[in-house]
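A reminder before we start the practical. When you read a complex entry, don't treat the lines as separate problems. The point of joint prediction is that each chain is placed relative to the others, so the output describes one connected object in space. Small molecules and nucleic acid strands, if listed, are placed in the same frame. In the example below there are two entries. Take a minute to note the order of the lines before looking further.
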Amino acid sequence: MQYLNLTIDDIRKALDNKEVTSDELFNEAIKKANYYQKDYNSFVTILDNYEKVESNSILNGVCYALKDNISTKKILTTASSNILKDYVPVYDATVYKKLKESGAVLVGKTVMDELAMGGSGTTGHTGIVRNPWDITRQIGGSSAGSAAAVALGIVPFAIGSDTGDSIRKPASYSGVVGFKPTYGRISRYGLFPFASSLDHLGCFTRCVKDAAYVIDVIKGHDDKDMTSLNDDNKEYSKSLDNDIKGRKLFYIKEALECDDNNSELKEIINNFKQTIEKCRSIGFEVDEISIDNKLLEALYPTYMVISCAEATSNNANLTGISFGPRPLEKNVNDLIFKARTTGFSELIKRRFILGSYILQKENQEKLFLNACRVRRLIVDTINKLFDKYDGYIMPSMSSIAVKFDEKENQVSNKNFAIEHLLLIANFGGMPSISFPCGIVNNMPISINMTSGAKNDELLLNMAYKVEEVLGYKGINRGDDNV
Amino acid sequence: MIKKEKLQEYAKKLMFDMKDEEYETLAKEFEIITKKMDIIGEIDNLDQIQPMTFPFPLENVSLREDVASNTINIEDIKVNAKELENDQVKIPKVVE
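Here is the predicted structure of the whole assembly.
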């Protein structure tokens, strides 16, 4: 009998009824993690022991995985980069501390795109992560291994980070739930920064209810993170079943005007239209609204400018002196030069050079500050709609998971794609959740729901109700015979 | 197209180098990205908008008292030090 492919409620019940012990669950997780590692490469580190903790939390004894950019004292934490390949943190991230106190059991640290800068799951220093639905396809990133570990039933939940779409994209590509709450809802203390004004922590689960359970444990104010919000003192898992009759959603008309020759996208959009009808059938009011195409086309460049600029500055501390391998050179300059030349992959260097270009004195006003202005324009436009609506609903992605030979790491020529809408929630710090809504060409597709900042409770409540009518709750790709 | 020398200058400032073919890829990428970035400038009346640096006003911006609250002990610190002498981390000479 396997337990880790069940919901958290069912695992809790099995633990409380003494059908299974936390030791047995840990062994099940380790066995599965090792079994799938060769094919899927979810983990940088698989642990071999854990400490038992007394706690009444629903997560006590439940196994999970952490993305490898989250500090874990005495446990290797590499951010999937050669420049940190031997780094062992000296303190715990707040999110890890909270999970430890709850008694949740860490199984391992997951592979990601290097330094969280990438969306393919192919740039980690220990190799590519493969999609559990089709080994020839990417799982998406950057929180690739966390998504794979949940999709394979190795763990019922995993923690990831999301700066542009890094939880919601891999969740969509692998048929699991990906949720990032409001900016500051979960402390970022101990998360390696990528772009501090856009970085969020969040979780992967196989149903919305489990996401609520996890966030209930890891949210809350933290003095160690000055962007941390005051706690809203709510238990999201208790209000999932609230009545949603009359709740108002919108979707963006321009985003659905697809290229007629793309049959896969047509199927995704048809599925979305059926999803909308299902939402209406349970009491949602759903309206079509229009947004200026210029703003939609500005989403991606705005993200590139802000994220690359912030990343270039944030990662200036990776020098080979304080952390990571230190090359043997006779002076400090040569040492840093060599550490960074050999420690960063090509993609990271390209992003840093772009960031440096954006931050040059002559470009700051035209590029960086104008991008920050467009960010406000986009956020204000959406927030104005949230005066009338409780949230928006859109397909998460414009395609199923792409094949490895499709050039994911190159910048696309397209000015707008549906997935660019995921960036809005990072610009505005809004809670945003993606969850499965269908199968196209034997691969999962998903929808995204996003609400106004600090409306996490309502968003989870609405997503829970929509998930109920879609019928894809709890799907996973684990092998029952492992 | 942006010149390779210019890209090398940025890379040097960032204290790393790349291979020749990587600079070529980057130069091509710059073409696409700078075109995309032009879209930002096409939006009307940008000069009247305040740049947004955080998603919403921060709730807790007061500075804490200047009292040590979060310390890391020396034994822990040593874990990542490559070379130690009398509990001090050794690095190459800064002044030659």
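Discuss with your neighbour: The radius of gyration of chain A is 21 Å. What might explain this?
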